[in-house]
Amino acid sequence: MIMDLTAILNGVPWTIALTLASFIVGAALGLPLCAMRLSTIGALRFTSTAIVVSCRSIPPIVWLFFVFFGIGNGLIAMSPFTAAVVGLGVVTAANMSEIYRGALTAIHPGQFEAAKVLNLTRSQQFRDVVLPQLTRIALPSGATYLIGLLKDSAVASTIGVTDLAYQSYHISQQTFRGLSVYAAAALLYILLSLPIAWLSRWADVQLRSRVSR
Amino acid sequence: MNSIASPFLESEPLASQRTGATGEPVLCVESVSKTYGTHRVLENITFQMQAGEVIAIIGPSGSGKSTLLRCINQLEPPNEGKVTIGGVTIDAGRAPSRRDLVALRRKIGMVFQSFNLFPHLSVLRNVSLAQERTMGRSRKEADVRSMDLLARVGLADKASQYPARCSGGQQQRIAIARALALEPEIMLFDEPTSALDPELGLEVLAVMKELALSGMTMIVVTHEMHFAENVSDRVILMAEGHILEEGPSAEIMRAPKTERAAKFLSAVRDR
After folding, report:
1. In this complex, is the C-beta atom of B140 within 8 Å of any C-beta atom belonging to chain A?
2. Would you call A172 helix, strand, or coil by DSSP?
3. Are A118 and B178 a contacting pair at CB < 8 A?
4. CA distance A147 to A149
5. Does A132 contact B at CB distance below 8 Å?
6. Which residue of A has its CA nearest to B122?
7. How many CA atoms lie within 13 A of A16 on its CB side?
8. How many CB atoms lie within 10 A of CB A62?
9. For chain A, how many helices (H) and strands (E)?
10. How far apart are CA A46 and CA A68, in angstroms?
11. Is A95 helix (H, G, I), strand (E, B) or coil?
12. Residue A110's CB: how many other CB atoms inside 10 A?
């Protein structure tokens, strides 16, 4: 039993690594995607909208199979982990770009005007005025998405990433103790998501305490 | 002394106390028009301004006062006409270069009705940020300058607070300090007291009066008739996108020539 638990725990670092890596990829790629969506150039807007809509309407598992068995088979050789980061990262980028877009509309238009009349350059406007406010507004939705991503990362077990779900499946196959194995796995997913929720709430309170009375 | 020759001006203590420079106009607005779709918001607006002058723009809601102010610093690009400030001309006929826009806005400070302080930055950072980014001042230099200005608007003790902890009147005074920090040649005020209750509005008006006395060139879009009559040198009264009347404050405020202007003034005075 202890041996089984150790085997399941071996999947935890992979689950964490996959979740964080695809979130970082997605959170970064989401910014240019959002910028394109709001561009005055029609072609950019169309491209971004097409990417966002397709990424959000295709189930993550289909994406993963497309990347791993499709692109990964012959075109660009990829490890299961890389394929999973690419697949989930792209889906995350699409969703994060929508979260950013929503957060941008929540920033008072006067903020952009004040930055403009103070003669800040566009990059200064973004870095000094928009990004800090965007981060604060997008934080709760971003954290909710991150917890969702942690759970969705289990689909990567289907292409052979040796994560928590993968390990649990194999141990249960070997030991026929499905109930205890999956209960342990479920508990581990809960334990992993709690700190994210706590951290996001703490950060939210910290950031909010400044901007409200 | 002020450059406007007017028999009324001599009787205005505030205007005559001012020490603004005279000579070349500091601002020229020539035939500026602005259209939204088919709606003409500004129709052929022309006026000039001397350094050290204070102009109040008054008029009913929707008369184009704020749009005119926003056309001057190109927050709203005019459809026709020219704006010249200190040698920089923006002609609506040609798309302005980024460089011209920067040069124009360097000379203009703007204060908004809704303050628009940056909520994520302390009061001191609000005033210092643009100095560091656009004037090449070090953080230390900028902070020294900011503290001077915060003291001038009576808020040195708020420097480390966040804007949300300040009253509306305090926020607007901080916004004035933030604009002054960039050493503009001319200050634009877009209904600076309209979002404030009367008591808080007074503390903002006091700061603006002090600024006017120090010789700052100012255009103030306002509903404060007392300010228009007693602090400003000249009044521009707008209605339906036109300049209805323009002239020395006392003249316009006490003896308007048109019936429309008289009607507006009596309505706002009766409040």
Report:
1. no
2. helix
3. yes
4. 5
5. yes
6. A210
7. 12
8. 12
9. 10, 0
10. 27
11. helix
12. 14
| Interface contact A213-B165, CB threshold 8 A | yes
Whether B250 contacts chain A with CB within 8 A: no
Q: How far is the alpha carbon of A127 from chain B, nearest alpha carbon, in Å? A: 11
Q: Which two tokens stand for residue A117?
A: 């009349």
Strand partners for B110? B188
Mutate to test the interface with A, among B70, B116, B166 (most CBs of A within 10 A): B116
The distance of A117 to chain B (nearest Cα, Å) reads: 6
Asked if B238 reaches chain A (Cβ–Cβ under 8 Å), the answer is no
Return per-residue pLDDT of chain A as tens, 213 residues. Answer: 677 788 889 999 999 999 999 999 999 999 999 999 999 999 999 999 999 999 989 999 999 999 999 998 878 888 999 999 999 999 999 999 999 999 999 999 999 999 999 999 999 999 999 999 999 999 999 999 999 999 999 999 999 999 999 999 999 999 888 899 999 999 999 999 999 999 999 988 888 887 765
Smallest Cα distance from B35 to chain A, Å: 20
Contact B102 A132 (CB under 8 A): no
Residue contact B164–A110, C-beta within 8 A: no
H-helix segments, A38-77: 42-57, 60-65
Q: Is A90 helix (H, G, I), strand (E, B) or coil?
A: helix
